Amino acid sequence: MRRIGPALAVCALIAWYTPVWPALPYAQLDSGWALALSVACERGLVFGRDLLFTYGPLGCYSTRQYSPTTYWGGAVLFASVAGLAASLTYDARKSMRAHFAALIALAWLGIEQDTALFALPLAYADHAHRNGTRSWRTVATLAVMAALTLVKFTLLPLMALTVITSCLMRREKSITGGLIDGALFVVTMAVAWWLAGQPFDAIPEYLSGSAEVSRGYAQAMSWPGGASGSSTRALAIAACVVLASLGAGWLAISRSIDHSDERRSRIGWRLFVVVLMLLGIRLGTTRGDPEHLVRTAILAGAVVLYFWPQDQHLRRWAKGIVLVCAVLTLALGLPRAPSQRAKGMLERHFDSTILGLETWRNGWPPKTTLEAQLALERQILGQQPLLSAIDDRFDIIGEDQYLLLALNTQHWAPRPIMQGYSAYTDRLTRLNAAYLAGPGAPTWLVVSVRPIDGRFAMMDDPAIWPVLKSRYDSLETDDTHALLKLRGTPTPINESLIQSELNLSDWTPVPSFGSRDVYARLAVRESVSDRLLALAWKPAINYLEVMTSSPDQAKRYRVVPEAAASGFLLSPLIENHRELDAWMRDQSQTLTRVTAIRVVDGSGRPIASHLTLSTRPFLTP
């Protein structure tokens, strides 16, 4: 009986983690890139060369979104994470109470797909510290952790640190054992890379490109918020997250004092916990919106639950406070959009798990049922007239990759950075522009202009817009998209070069240059306090305010600093796909001109900036 209970609990945990009934693709930003990742895996696109994203070549298996080619791979991935984490926990803990508390903590992590992947390094390091020996469990876990580094690039430092610190914590202090662990980790990564169909000569491009994506992510993707109820809610969540994370980290570190007398083991454990919690905090605060902060709260709550069975009165109170903060964060941050199928991520995941198991129990394989529903979505989406003309290689400009459902994915020829909002550095947007200007440019482009977070539209992938005007014809538009086709001969930009340098302190007039296109380079000066804020919380967000000719009113847009410094189309003002269509047809006289600009912070205070204006694009492939 003592074995049946834990075995049932482990099976329940595996069922909880495994996406038996994953979500279906739909018209939403995250769903779009998840579908695109699945198509990239199916097509064998090379990451780092054909595609650059925060996820790697195995990322398609971690999205918990249905795709026929990744369904079973995703199920195996999450089942392996859950089974190995539970097995390590059971092997490291002696009392039944400690074992079940840890399983509850692992189940808490499994609520969300990003936090679920933290379960394995947590269980692996805890096993090394408590048990201190190697076994088949540790070898299997090491191999899976190596594969997880190819799921998401940001997992690479966490998994590598877990292996290093675990070597410090083991009772077997031989250097040979540590070298064997390191070699197994690297070799398994290489094997996983090869099994994913990736050439080894693309590894440097993948690492450098992914590092570039990660480097610019915080500055470009931090949530703008604002003086609103949602902003206040986010700050309240952030306070709970910080308290919960610091408390969870302290509790985990203090456990090492009680359970280990060896200095090297204590150092290894403390280093692991500090890095784990710091990465967990950045997981939420980099974006900084309620939905991402919830993930940090989930991690903090899981760490507390993982070390719950301790008898010290003070720590019991501390654990209670941290857990309350985590639960409060989860409650405050639950998504409330009516379009979502449940009120929050916990209910959503519970419902999908139960639905999948019920479908299987009734004799209807979930994959078959999901495939039928997906086919219906394809049929409905394929009725759009604009898409019916696409009969050759194509790409989707914007974040509507869900349209891949209605198109021949064998013809999909994506830019390296497939969603424009992610081309937020000079290097990334130049890669996209070079691709569209090169001989391998796709014949068709489906274009939407819907910037996220209130951005200035032409700062999303800023280098590609002049290339589109030079190489493509705009054929037609519908309610949401414009359809472009590659022309035989590019149209050169014959505008005479006129440039102007301006220092902005407040409202500054923008010269019209005879109604020509006006391109701008904007360098926003960053204060010391802004840099400190970026380290402690998230980067400060500044705004570009523009005064327009028709009507004469000010509009505010979020500035993406590196994209602004690279160069972007400032005037005419393009805010949607119909205005883009008019600009590409040289009907700029019908568009609104920018007459004056200034840069302000979130409170509306002007910020000193330097502006360079030109009648020709600054960025050329």
Structure description:
This protein has helices spanning 4-17, 29-43, 71-92, 96-109, 113-116, 119-130, 136-148, 155-169, 175-195, 203-221, 229-259, 263-285, 290-306, 313-333, 345-361, 366-381, 385-388, 426-437, 464-471, 528-536, 561-566, 577-584; strands at residues 394-397, 444-447, 472-477, 482-486, 499-504, 508-509, 518-524, 543-548, 554-558, 568-571, 594-600, 609-614. Mean pLDDT is 83; it is low at 226-230 and 334-343. The protein is built from 22 helices and 12 strands. With 621 residues, it is an alpha+beta fold. Strands 1-2-4-3 form a 4-stranded mixed beta sheet. Strands 5-12-7-10 form a 4-stranded antiparallel beta sheet. Strands 6-11-8-9 form a 4-stranded antiparallel beta sheet, with no helix packed on it.
> What's the helix count?
22
Silhouette = globular
Q: Low-confidence spans: pLDDT under 50, at least 5 residues?
A: 226-230, 334-343
Distance between the termini: 68 Å
SS elements, strand count: 12
Strand line-up of the largest beta sheet: 1-2-4-3
Indicate the proportion of strand residues. 5-15%
- Portion of residues within helices: 40-55%
Which structural class fits the helix and strand makeup?
alpha+beta
Computed over alpha carbons, the radius of gyration is 26 Å
Mean pLDDT: 83
Q: Sheet with the most strands?
A: 4 strands, mixed
List keywords for this structure.
single chain; 621 residues; alpha+beta; four-stranded mixed sheet; four-stranded antiparallel sheet; globular
